[in-house]
Amino acid sequence: MNDASLHQFSILTVLLLLFAFYGGTYLLTLMIKKKNEDTDAFMVSNRSVDFGMGAASMTATWIWAASFYAAATSGYTYGISGPLHYGFWGALMILFIYPFGKRFRKLAPNAHTLGELIHARHGSSSQLILAGSNVLGSVISLMVNFTAAGALVSVLSPLPFQAGVVIAGVGVLSYTLWSGFRASVLTDFAQLVAMMAIAILIIPAILFALGGPEVLITNFDKITPEQANLFSVDALLNQGAPFFAAVLAYSIGNQTISQRLFAVREDHIKPTFITATLGYGAIVIGLGMIGLMALLTGVEPLNGNMNNLIPQMVSLYLPAGFIMLFFILVIGSLSSPADADLCALSAIAMADIYGKNIAKDKPDPRKMLLIGRLTMVAATAIGVMLASLSLDILVMLVFVGALWGAIVFPVIASCFWSRVTDKAFTWAVIAGLVMFCIVRFSLLPMTGVVGIVFELLASVGGGVVIGLMAFGFFGRVAGLSAGVLVTLVLGYYSVDALRDYQVLMASLTAYGASTLVCIALSLMSDSRFDFTLIRKRVGDYDSTEITSTNTPVSNQVMPNNGKVILESQ
Amino acid sequence: METLILATYILVWPVISLAVLSVIVFATLRDFRCARREGRDVV
Q1: Are residues A361 and A237 in the same domain?
Q2: How many separate domains does chain A show?
Q3: Measured distance CA(A387)–CA(B40) in Å, rounded
């Protein structure tokens, strides 16, 4: 069954749809527009976002255009378990962040970025590693989302790819520029409501349009036993586990997420993130089922491009009205993370670069706002330019993923363990990155002793991932026990086996190497950090309450006679 | 039986989405009402 072609809208229809979406979103932001925004509101909405808006914003930001396509691709490739191995792990990571988010808020209640917290803890070097990784990550994310807009417009209408890229860029910038994060949160709510409503309609509509579950059941014998297996090991090792390791890094390292952790009312963090977990999982796994339905009905992706699967299924089985809804679904899913990226980049430029490193904690709030808005304009221009050039960014994407993977343990350890130093943080990230590159780009042959060493290092990484999750929810003893146990089990089973799964092994190696270096260098240091200093060092820029100091922050220690402090939550 | 299981497996996600959407919409409406009553911005 490969006679599909995609439905084509006229240029006028597509322009009207885009104008209605971005025009409506812009009008929505006029409701909250203030002549004089303050920096706190612009960056974190004064940390008073309530449960409903917070849950909507977190869900919408976590879903990007690629989520639907990748979940459907996973369903098409791995069968029954495929959508779960995309959506479930992605959702779990939203849940994973909130215990650490509560700790971030406790340490730095007035922070706007995670970089500010790390600056107060360690100093500029660690902060700029985090800020740099975020700038790179958010620019790539902008490019990917604008590219998705260009691709969508070009496959569903005669409009050229570049037209879709430019319209999406200008559209997102127009509603985000003035009110910043406040506009992002408000529009996230509207975009999420539209996305969820459309997904709720489209999934059963396709199922029943192609003949109902009876038709799918009759085709079950045409798929492989692995595809028919809900507990497919193939799907777990090739899709679930690498994605799990990647999104864990994303959830901790990305400013779009930490910005929401700092913005939601502190007493609402837990329900907000639990609701976002359920919302993300349901919508992404649900849309991934379209890939499974395509597999079971024998549909082949148009031109061999897996990204055509969902538009193809919608075009094949549903009337034009549904295709319009699908168009809005994708535009909403790419606009929400794009506006979050603009806000993240502006907050990094305002707080991490200008506030902490240029103005040295004596910033001019008006200048800060100007810097934030100019950053948004520049980021949009760069995102549109990179997307228009259709650059191959796979290497850059892999590199950012590795950087975030290497950052996870040092960031979390820095917030709980008083012995972690700036040097330990920095060298841990560098070591994680280097070891990742060796595995991911096959710089050394993964054979013999070298292969075994890296497999054991990756096993430590696996233990770190599980240990951190257990630590977040159940405390230090559970975290250490789970980490050690998983390391031993993985170490036993991974030797001579894990090297066959290069992507997974590379991600886990980044975790393992950074953790070991961070622990080793921290243990070699005599310094102890007083966590209460963070609260004093991170303040609101509008009221200029920050404690300024000439002593490098990493040198300011707590005189506790060498007692190790490992704070539980 | 298998048909019912497969139908449930596919359709449970839009049902959960509907439940979450309802929670988010009602909570947001409540947020708006509270913000108006307290004279503050909702975001």
Answers
A1: yes
A2: 2
A3: 40
